[in-house]
Write a structure and sequence with these properties.
alpha/beta; single chain
């Protein structure tokens, strides 16, 4: 659940608190407990879900999150061989100490020696995870879980999907989704099929407890849809009307049942990679992608973001290298300032955060740094 602590002159996630806590040898959570109420009347909080208009936090503390894929190395390592946080329980405690209040799961497996065993994708495992979340003041906002690949649905896939939703309800997830695009195809016909599939799955999810079903994007989802022009040997279109794949998907899916999680890094990669298309008449047209322009007309379809930063690298095919949040070149201040609604949950993600045997604590260190940088964004 979101924090119900009284307002303070400096939110516990601010750099000033971090420095004080470290000087005292306290975690953010311990520092908060020690100082609750000291300055309760010193500041007026922003309206729920909205950043303060006077230079206050651009992302409220209760909205700052992390997807656990970023710290997957810590979750999966053997607690019997290290003193570092290992397994879900200890990693959730560490993330709470850093200051995060929201997490997004990326599956429910951990090392077999961690408390609860290897696989927590069960009713009993979900109850255990929920207890650990509650104990640490954390709220799970989403999970990259099971989305049936087969279509039409087989009975076994439908049964598994419903079990996934049952686990989501135990965890209190408002959202459940996948780390993959609706389809990897460039063709309109395949996106039509994907839209039918996601509409039916989204309807099932909402009926099973109100869970919002979301699809995550990578760069290819913002490439141009092949929907026109002369057909190829298989009768498939070879040219584009200029609409991008995921933008088309948004126009043909019901906003009540199908939601999206924009990975802001991959959206910027798409901006770098997909600038031209071949029009129906054979001419080459230029259209530079603007990620925020996709979000602004229908913000409530984007309840979650992956806040993944990138450093510009002209020598890379993607145009960017992944780095800790706040250390790259993606203008997150401008991105979040452009949004009217504050209901979004930015989830810090960094695919390459694990440091391996050379630096086994790196992913949690990057999480700490990224949380500080997320906290420092100002309206």
């Amino acid at each position: 659940m979101a924090s119900s602590q009284p307002p303070r002159s400096q939110p516990p996630g601010d750099p000033q608190d971090d420095a004080l806590g470290r000087r005292l040898g306290l975690s953010r959570r311990q520092l908060l407990a020690a100082t609750t109420g000291i300055a309760a009347a010193a500041a007026i909080p922003a309206p729920p879900g909205r950043a303060a208009a006077d230079g206050g936090p651009l992302i409220r503390k209760s909205k700052r999150g992390i997807i656990l894929y970023t710290v997957r190395d810590a979750i999966s390592r053997d607690p019997l061989t290290t003193g570092l946080p290992s397994g879900f329980r200890k990693v959730l405690e560490a993330l709470s100490d850093i200051g995060f209040e929201r997490v997004e799961f990326a599956g429910f497996r951990q090392h077999a020696n961690a408390e609860g065993g290897a696989d927590l994708e069960t009713v009993e495992g979900a109850r255990l995870l929920r207890r650990w979340l509650d104990d640490n003041g954390l709220r799970a906002e989403g999970n990259h879980g099971f989305i049936p690949a087969s279509w039409p649905l087989t009975q076994s896939d439908l049964d598994r999907f419903k079990r996934t939703l049952e686990i989501a309800n135990i965890l209190g997830l408002d959202h459940m989704g996948t780390g993959a695009d609706p389809t990897s195809s460039p063709y309109k016909a395949d996106w039509d099929v994907a839209a039918d599939k996601w509409l039916q799955l989204g309807t099932i999810a909402k009926a099973a407890g109100g869970t919002k079903l979301y699809t995550h994007n990578h760069d290819a989802a913002y490439d141009f849809l092949l929907d026109s022009g002369p057909p190829d040997a298989q009768g498939r279109p070879t040219r584009s009307s200029g609409i991008r794949r995921l933008e088309y998907f948004l126009t043909i899916t019901d906003p009540r049942y199908v939601f999206l999680e924009m990975d802001i890094f991959w959206a910027h990669v798409a901006q770098h990679k997909f600038k031209t298309f071949t029009a129906p008449d054979g001419s080459v047209q230029t259209d530079v992608f603007d990620p925020i322009a996709v979000v602004k007309p229908q913000e409530r379809r984007f309840p979650l973001f992956h806040a993944k930063d990138g450093k510009i690298n002209a020598g890379s095919a993607n145009g960017y290298d992944m780095v800790p949040f706040g250390t790259g070149d993606i203008d997150y201040t401008a991105f979040f300032r452009a949004l009217k609604s504050g209901h979004h949950y930015p989830m810090y993600e960094q695919d390459n955060a694990p440091g391996g045997t050379a630096n086994p604590g790196q992913s949690l260190e990057f999480a700490d740094l990224s949380y500080d940088n997320m906290s420092a964004l100002r309206a």
